[in-house]
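Sanity check

After download, print the first record. It should look like this:
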Amino acid sequence: RHLGVSAAEYATAGTVLDTTALVVSNATGNQQYPTLEANGSTFLVAWDDLRNTATSSNDIYAARVNSGGNVLDATGIAVTTAAETQRYPAVSSNGSDWLIAWEDRRNYSITWTDVYGARVSTAGTVLDAAGIAISALGGDELKPHLASDGADYLVIWDDGTVIPGNVGGRWVKASGSTPDPGFQVVVTTQTDLVYNSTSKHFF
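Expected structure tokens:
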């Protein structure tokens, strides 16, 4: 017996639309820590996947679910199968594509745990096959969260590269580029990140 990923849709009134759970992934090995985001019409569910533990340890997989409750990627989208452990994904959408960010240990012997990401298109294509190195400095960067302003993305994480307990951040453009070098947001641990489209502020 192993862990899979299941889901159910709810109407705005709180009515459960799927009395039988949607099976998003039931692959070999455990699938855990699911997270999801809608781009306005389709959901992207991402999770930590252990189907390839013999070759690449924990990976990040995803699948699209349309508004009719149909899983569009039955075997999952391999977002990253890089060496070592990738875990704790977070996902946001700019209204078209999605960006997934995660903890990444592919270079653990050099830079410890880093934050990587990759964009997934509306068609379910991974646009950054090698991953985007969002933060890969010496010291642990952990537990990423992200939000979009409708175009680009702000990614934050628990940052141990300067003073343990800080929060680091970096912009990722819709194109996948990272034009700024990253910055310290605040001296505390972070829990989440959202964007207010009315005030145009991140919180």
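If your output differs, re-run the checksum step. Summary of this record's structure: Helices lie at 53-56, 108-111.
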